[in-house]
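idk why but the lab printer keeps eating my pages so im just putting this in chat instead. protein + zinc ion:
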Amino acid sequence: MAFLSDRDPLPYIKRDALKDSPFILVSDHAGRIVPEKLGDMGVSRDDWERHISHDIGIKEVGHYLHKLCGSVLIEQVYSRLVIDCNRSPGHPTSIASVSDNTNIPANQSVSEDERRARERAILHPYHDVIEREIDQRKGSDNILISLHSFTSEMNGFKRPWHIGLLHDHDPLTAQIMIDMLKEDKTLCVGDNEPYILNSVNDYTVPYHAARRQMPALEIEIRQDLIAHETGQKEWAERLANLLPRVWDERKRRGNL
Ligand SMILES: [Zn+2]
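predcted complex ->
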């Protein structure tokens, strides 16, 4: 039996570019759909509302940003509890048995066959469509923009940042954006906060951008700021204004 049924949606939605744009927007944790076969995964209704199932608010920010920038947007529709699309295949937290201290019953002792079935059905098709988008642009300058959101509190620690820029192979683009964000003195901007981007615990930026030495930004916005429509629009507008400036400055400063 196939992992996804005829009633399950495709694992990604691609919103085509509305004009020529160097930005390739991707949203690994936009969705929280579960394949019919997995039911509710044994996770309570309240927990499905939490950040463990998806990146709260980022799907909507992505949609507004797509409209404002006219850039292509590729988003994952299934919950990261089914499979985390920002983890490499086989990574220990790719199919999390525990997420932020919450047990995920459907992910206890997942067999090798089941893991591969989830990868084939969800992880690979999503990354294949990103790969095709990048490949068809060969020869022109583009930048991968990976959109995420983070919870305002973790293990009792209140996170002060409004936005964080995560980087590894391309610190220059991140630094340019951090400096521009800091022009607004009211913003607390994280530099590789609240996470450090790396090739072990991240997948999308290392796999698609680092190995091509392609410019990339991984943007994390604090979830309470984009939990509602007003904040989602406000942050999409902020990014839509900044990204072209960042890109112009990045090109001015030269190649990676
Ligand atoms: Zn995320």
